[in-house]
Write a structure and sequence with these properties.
This protein is of the alpha+beta class and 103 residues long. It contains two helices and five strands; from the N terminus they run E-E-E-E-H-E-H. Helix 1 links the parallel strand 4 and strand 5.
């Protein structure tokens, strides 16, 4: 299945639309270096097709390119990161000192 994933900075979400239904990863931008990934939603009839994983990969690529970190407060995001160790360095750890903390 091919689809176009987009980033909507105004509404703080990564998403794709399939058959008129939106599959969304909502986040809160805490600062330039930290994003709280709050909610992954895929409509019931579209689940189990790898859509959430593709949206996650797109979002994590954005985080990596922007040298930011992810605070995973969504259970899906937390599970995804646990099962995809190649993204471990993108996870925010409480003991990390962010640049804004130094100002």
């Amino acid at each position: 299945m091919k689809f176009n994933i987009k980033h909507d900075t105004k509404n703080q979400k990564f998403y794709t639309e399939i058959g008129g239904k939106e599959c969304t990863l909502k986040y809160e931008k805490i600062n330039e270096q930290l994003y709280n990934f709050k909610l992954m939603f895929v409509p019931k009839n579209l689940r189990g097709q790898g859509i959430a994983g593709r949206v996650m990969e797109y979002a994590l690529s954005y985080i990596r390119k922007n040298m930011a970190k992810v605070k995973p407060t969504c259970s899906y995001v937390e599970s995804y990161l646990y099962n995809h160790k190649e993204h471990t360095e993108l996870i925010y750890k409480r003991e990390m000192v962010l640049q804004d903390d130094l100002s």
